[in-house]
Write a structure and sequence with these properties.
It is a single chain. The chain contains 11 helices and 12 strands. A 6-stranded parallel β-sheet has the order 2-1-3-4-5-11, with helices on both faces. A 6-stranded mixed β-sheet has the order 7-6-8-9-10-12, with helices on both faces. It is an alpha/beta fold.
Length: 346
């Protein structure tokens, strides 16, 4: 059997150097070339030892089949809110070597059957549900898809990525109150088919007024059902039908706010001198309205990206409990809200 001396003589190094290499001792420097010669010689001479294992190549990530269901029924990719969430989803999937198998919306009862067919056809491993959808379809997804992650939904049984809608609305309305506004209108819609006044952004609006000791004028709480045209028409009607108008309007989305701003300017009201506006979402166009719209920046791109990260983690069994991830929002003050306190009569 070969000895360390035999290897040392063959390579032309000291016995101690051979010993250090055989023991994988990294405390003293030995060149890679010398290490290689020592190991090759040891193998040629039949010297038995434990050679360090070669590092395995990083295993490729498993490619999962991912589907997505979105609450909004039409023009998912053109909607300035949902399109950015979808951009984040697709960006993160691409970074992981995957893609969305489909994006689907449920508009009528038969759509649930079509969704079921898509899930089976594409052999979906994971599903992203963006905002609240038809309850029956949602129950089927949870029962038949391996992992489900929600974006801005309320469900303790599945992981969810969201922002705090109620706190965001409350901060916006508190800003208006701090400016001296005492008559603040609300424009928004309901979550799926729930009570209009149960939606979290309305609850934030209501909470801010209540804490300030201010009343809610029911004539100026307008359910526009998230419809841009209705936001314009119903705000226009409210101006025409009510002698008393608000000094500020908080809208639960930028799209609703922008439509209502048009109704105000058509009555020759100056923004923000006569009436202030505050929206939610920070869609791209909000910065270019006249005047630019104060808004809550909703982290849409990040919510989409983190939803994918979370879904992959659950598909790989990293967690057993349903995690809720809340992404911070930001309050962006622009010219649609006045920087000066308005006069308030005691």
């Amino acid at each position: 059997m070969a000895k360390l001396k035999d290897i040392a003589d063959r390579v032309g190094v000291s016995i101690s150097t051979v010993s250090r290499v055989m023991k994988n001792d990294a405390n003293r420097s030995v060149s890679d070339e010398t290490r290689k010669k020592i190991w090759e010689t040891a193998e040629q001479l039949g010297y038995r030892t434990l050679r360090p294992a070669k590092k395995k190549k990083a295993e490729a990530k498993t490619a999962y089949r991912i589907g997505c269901v979105v609450a909004i029924p039409q023009n998912k990719y053109n909607n300035p809110y949902f399109s950015v969430i979808l951009e984040g989803i697709e960006k993160e999937l691409a970074a992981s070597g995957m893609r969305l198998e489909f994006v689907y919306s449920i508009e009528k009862e038969t759509d649930t059957e079509q969704l079921q067919a898509l899930v089976k056809e594409h052999q979906i491993d994971g599903m992203l549900v963006v905002e609240r959808i038809d309850p029956e379809a949602y129950r089927w997804i949870k029962a038949n898809v391996r992992s489900v992650v929600g974006v801005d939904i309320a469900d303790r049984e599945v992981p969810v990525v969201s922002y705090d809608r109620e706190a965001a609305a409350k901060e916006a309305v508190n800003h208006l109150i701090a400016q001296g506004h005492r008559h603040i209108a609300y424009i928004g819609g309901s979550e799926y088919k729930d009570d209009f006044r149960a939606e979290k952004r309305f609850l934030g609006y209501q909470s801010a007024l209540k804490e300030a000791g201010l009343p809610i004028d029911d004539e100026w709480v307008i359910n526009v059902k998230w419809d841009v045209a209705l936001s314009y028409e119903l705000t226009k009607q409210a101006f025409a039908n009510n002698a008393q108008r608000p000094t500020a309007i908080f809208a639960a989305s930028d799209m609703m706010a922008i439509a209502a701003m048009r109704a105000a300017t058509e009555r020759e009201l100056k923004i923000p001198d006569d009436i202030a506006f505050f929206g939610v979402d920070n869609i791209e166009i909000s910065e270019f309205t006249s005047p630019p719209l104060s808004t809550i920046h909703v982290p849409k791109l990040e919510m989409g990206m983190f939803a994918v990260k979370l879904l992959i983690d659950y598909l790989e069994n990293h967690y057993e409990i349903a995690v809720k991830m809340v992404i911070p929002y930001r309050c962006l003050l622009r010219h649609s809200t006045s920087s000066k306190l308005i006069h308030v009569t005691p």
